[in-house]
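Field log, afternoon session.

UNIT: design team B
ACTIVITY: writing a sequence onto a fixed backbone
BACKBONE:
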């Protein structure tokens, strides 16, 4: 070899050594102290910095994150573990594997479950809550609670919220609805918003776009046979409008700099949730019907408003009427 070549080899190996020693240093660094960040400033932990779990427990959390980010690869129609879901990923609706502030994250779960939920009229564990999303949002079946996959997803979700104080809800977790309108949300107006701001990714028929290997979506479906069913959280306008206002068009907006006005968010929610989708038997939901959320689109109700008004609003009169009902009860 010529002299110059030896010099290059020498320099490159030196650089490589330097990089490796950096990596090893990082891996051996003393455990990063995680600040006790509760509301309002909570941010999700990072797997690289947070060494609160080690060994098998850490492996389980890492597998859980993978399942939540790439659900379809493991559990979709061609899933490598089981074919029990519709091809969507949990991450489609829980952004950045459920760690994004205002992206429907899991920050509040570890601190608040098990908890009583009116939808089932029972105390729900994290397992029950994950099962709900599998049966509704992923329009599929749940997994055995002892399966490695379920254990991993639960371990991961609990890890995401492990620095959150018991019974507190960090700001920016879950979904926050936009300001209520004084009118009903309009599917017609929403269709104009959809064509202008959503269709380029989600498709003219809300069908989304499958990736080249056909195993998962590059852009997930918003309606039709492969989307969430009528029992899913997003089928309620407040959930859809809140999620979309804070996060869509994807990667172009933030909670503080949204791409839609509140009106546009409600209207596009009304449009998308008026398109056809799979139905779920909801006869066992809300055993106490007076506890149905104002925007639950299926009667019967105790407040005298129609299904249409519950679905599309205006919601303020419903909120007022419920307050008055409450007052009468307490008198
Ligand atoms: C189509 C969208 C969608 C998909 C896909 C989805 N979810 Fe959800 N999920 C929601 C919505 C909406 C809520 C309710 C959020 C709210 O009301 O603040 C929710 C709530 C949850 C909660 C409770 C959060 C809390 O703070 O109480 C958990 C846990 C959860 N989902 C787990 C999962 C898992 C695990 C998967 C994948 C197996 C999944 N979800 C897939 C939409 C979805
Ligand atoms: C630039 C492409 C793009 C545009 C434009 C866009 N989205 Fe999305 N949307 C995505 C991607 C990608 C995801 C999934 C994100 C992930 O998995 O990390 C998503 C997820 C969603 C979801 C949750 C998953 C599902 O399929 O139900 C909803 C609801 C949604 N988008 C609605 C909208 C609406 C309404 C608009 C228009 C206001 C819109 N999006 C505009 C790319 C886009």
């Amino acid at each position: 070899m010529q002299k110059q070549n030896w010099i290059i080899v020498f320099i490159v190996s030196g650089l490589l050594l330097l990089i490796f020693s950096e990596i090893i240093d990082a891996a051996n660094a003393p455990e990063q102290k995680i600040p006790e960040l509760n509301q309002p400033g909570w941010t999700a932990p990072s797997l690289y910095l947070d060494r609160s779990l080690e060994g098998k427990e850490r492996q389980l959390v890492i597998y859980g994150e993978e399942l939540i980010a790439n659900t379809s690869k493991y559990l979709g129609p061609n899933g490598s573990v089981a074919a029990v879901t519709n091809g969507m990923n949990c991450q489609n609706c829980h952004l950045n594997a459920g760690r994004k502030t205002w992206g429907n994250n899991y920050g509040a779960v570890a601190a608040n479950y098990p908890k009583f939920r009116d939808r089932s009229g029972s105390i729900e564990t994290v397992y029950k809550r994950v099962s709900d999303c599998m049966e509704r949002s992923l329009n599929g079946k749940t997994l055995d609670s002892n399966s490695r996959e379920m254990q991993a997803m639960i371990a991961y979700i609990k890890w995401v919220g492990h620095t959150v104080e018991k019974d507190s809800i960090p700001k920016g977790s879950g979904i926050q609805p936009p300001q209520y309108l004084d009118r009903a949300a309009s599917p017609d107006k929403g269709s104009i918003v959809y064509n202008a701001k959503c269709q380029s990714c989600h498709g003219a028929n809300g069908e989304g776009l499958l990736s080249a290997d056909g195993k998962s979506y590059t852009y997930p479906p918003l309606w039709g046979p492969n989307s969430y069913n009528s029992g899913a959280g997003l089928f309620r306008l407040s959930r859809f409008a809140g999620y979309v206002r804070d996060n869509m068009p994807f990667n172009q907006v933030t909670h503080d700099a949204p791409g839609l006005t509140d009106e546009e968010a409600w209207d596009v929610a009304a449009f998308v949730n008026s398109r056809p989708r799979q139905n779920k038997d909801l006869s066992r939901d809300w055993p106490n019907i007076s506890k149905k959320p104002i925007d639950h689109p299926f009667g019967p109700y105790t407040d005298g408003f129609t299904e249409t008004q519950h679905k599309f609003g205006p919601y303020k009169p419903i909120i007022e009427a419920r307050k008055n009902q409450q007052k009468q009860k307490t008198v």
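LOG NOTE: The chain has three domains: 55-160, 187-272, 289-330.
NEXT ACTIVITY: expression trials, pending approval
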